[in-house]
Amino acid sequence: QVQLVESGGGLVQAGGSLRLSCAASGRSFSRYNMGWFRQAPGKERDFVARIRWNGDSTYYAESVKGRFTISRDNAENTVFLQMNSLKLEDTAVYYCNAEFLGQQFWGQGTQVTVSS
To answer: What confidence score (pLDDT) does residue 5 get?
Structure first.
């Protein structure tokens, strides 16, 4: 079992940057593949980025490639999402996800709002 708490969301102008953090508690954080998803109003929850348990591979949705960077600090049980060149369409609630052997855990989400 792992508990996830996101932070770092907020209001930012288009073209700006935000850095989301996801702090994990519980055992064996370094075993979990970690990811970020987002859900815009009236839409389904979509994949944004993922990083393997050891940090050696990352994956991104096409819509964020080149703008977002996922990273992790296993010593601090934290995963990050650096978001640059934000667009209006990046507005959503961002959720942290942990996955291990098919088990999935979710945080409560943090709101990101991009204004023009």
So the answer is: 97
